Amino acid sequence: xxxxxxxxxxxxxxxxxxxxxxxxxxxxxxxxxxxxxxxxxxxxxxxxxxxxxxxxxxxxxxxxxxxxxxxxxxxxxxxxxxxxxxxxxxxxxxxxxxxxxxxxxxxxxxxxxxxxxxxxxxxxxxxxxxxxxxxxxxxxxxxxxxxxxxxxxxxxxxxxxxxxxxxxxxxxxxxxxxxxxxxxxxxxxxxxxxxxxxxxxxxxxxxxxxxxxxxxxxxxxxxxxxxxxxxxxxxxxxxxxxxxxxxxxxxxxxxxxxxxxxxxxxxxxxxxxxxxxxxxxxxxxxxxxxxxxxxxxxxxxxxxxxxxxxxxxxx
Length: 315
Known about the structure:
The chain has 315 residues and is mainly alpha-helical.
């Protein structure tokens, strides 16, 4: 990835000679390191919440009928067709001291005084998640649509519970969509500054805001270029780590290409992921068995208790 003229300013002095003095300024104070770590933290949490919120929506879209899916996709894509400033103004009205959220909490008697939701870290997450969750849904949807539904039905026929089918079969097959959505959302959120500017406070500033301040307020283009280089290499580092652990081919679900260059590394990660999925399936399956023992058997007819699993599924 070649450096643009703005990046080149970060390694030049006022006379145009090569220098690294601007990067030394980054180490003079811990403020810049904290801002970079805060940017990474916001991007990571945004990716996590986008996956948690978007995964059920993507699953619903994948199993819906084509006509219903097309209608629901309009509601998913509607935020992307609306200006972020308009959405931000709506969130400010909802999260303000006299906004909808605080008014509802007061009406239900859950709080006595208004909660501070604007100029907080939580407000920044609300803005970034709302902006990025449609992207996460659209990244996971094609992978989920390609999963053969007969696999889950075959597992249920063999006696697997719903949680076991999900953790052992469906989740591993949908993993390429999850990791693709997480990477795309993380990279976009790392340089996303509008939400932190509108919803955040002084402690929630991101590195992209520092770049804008250096250009518009201080007019220090060289230091702004150094900060942009740091942001660029932080993004490249995340992509390199992702490629090292999972392989960029996992974005498309083509595991044959991933097995050529990083087979040894992927084997460990996939083994850990499959073990985690199997453990989760066993835990949720055990919980379901316990619930059946406590209350499920009393709700079934005597002849249904002894009916085999294959008999139930073949009806």
